[in-house]
Structure formats: structure tokens, C-alpha cells
Amino acid sequence: MTAARRLPRLLNVGVDVDRMDEHQLQFLNDEFFSLTLMATVQRANVYSPGASARAKAGFQKALRGSLEKLEPVYRASVSEDDHIGHIVALAEALSASHADILLGRRFRIGTAQKALNLYLKYRWCIGKIPTPPHCPFDGQIISRLPGCRGISWTVLDSEAHYRHLVAGAKAAAKGVPLAVWELLTYNDAQPGVAADQISTGR
Known about the structure:
By secondary structure, the chain is mainly alpha-helical. It has one domain. The chain is about 60% helix and about 0% strand. The relative contact order is 0.15.
């Protein structure tokens, strides 16, 4: 099934989170942040050598707080420029407050976009927010973007370079919302799992 045929269902997909109790929601919230952390901080060489476990835990708490504070903003439509502004602000705020334990004293824009975009992807997939403006950019996705091969999200620390990734993704997505395109692309790349079956419930 083509992306165009899968698009209407994906734009309206969601679960009835209103029927979950507080314990179920807490479990999902914890899992989503844990997965976000695993896919960003643990893969991007964020910490400086010698950073203590206590200091890392403090940084992780601050990152989670920042993501959770941003989520309500995305319950309404967010413009692309505002979204990019949130990514840059996240990078700058955590760099300023945790410079001593960060490699190069920076929480880089590439890592900040992965954290925010992935966190929003989880929230979207359970119907908590509408389709996000962008998608998580990692090695797998970047390798599919025209003119972007060789760019590493783990070292990217420029708004201009991030916008270059977005432009490449728009060219690859051919009019499909980036979040939807990335979800289909990611699912199609998983071994033994057909995105057609996932999206149609077969």
C-alpha cells in the first residue's frame, strides 16, 4: 500500500487514552521517556568523561521536565518555525544549566531534535497530540534524504543544518506530512514487520 493510501488512517489513528487510569498513563509516560532517552542521550555521546551518575540523573530529570512542559504546546497546531525555535531553545537551556557534564559543554541541536521529535512521535501515536510538524532525524532516516548523506545527527549543532535535513525530508516525503512519512519509512525498514499490515490492522 502506498503512503498516499495509508495517509488518511495514519492521520486519524489514536488510542482512547481517556479510558486509561493514572497508573497506566504513568507507565506509558515512563516508558516513552525511557525510550527517548535510550535513543538520544545513550547514542549520542552526550556526557563529558568523568560525569557522575548523580549529575547524569540530574540532567535526565531536566530533559524530561522540559519535554513534558512542551507537550501541551503541541496539543494545538505548531508552526515549523516555532517548532525549530523549541528545539534550539531546548538545546540552549540544557547547555546552559548542565554545561559541566556535557561533552563540549553542549547539548547539541541534533540531539535536542531527536529527543523532542521522538517524544512527540510517541505522544502522537497514542493520540495525545495531532500530527507533529517534523519527525525524528537519525542515521536511518538521514540516509534516505537527498543531499543529506554524511550528516550525523549526533554531532549536528546548527539550526541551518537542521533546516537542511527538513528540506531533504520534504523532498523525500513528496507532500506527505513528515511525521507520517517517517513512521511509514521506519516501519517498512523493520525486519519481519510489514508496515502495510500495521497500518491496516492485518
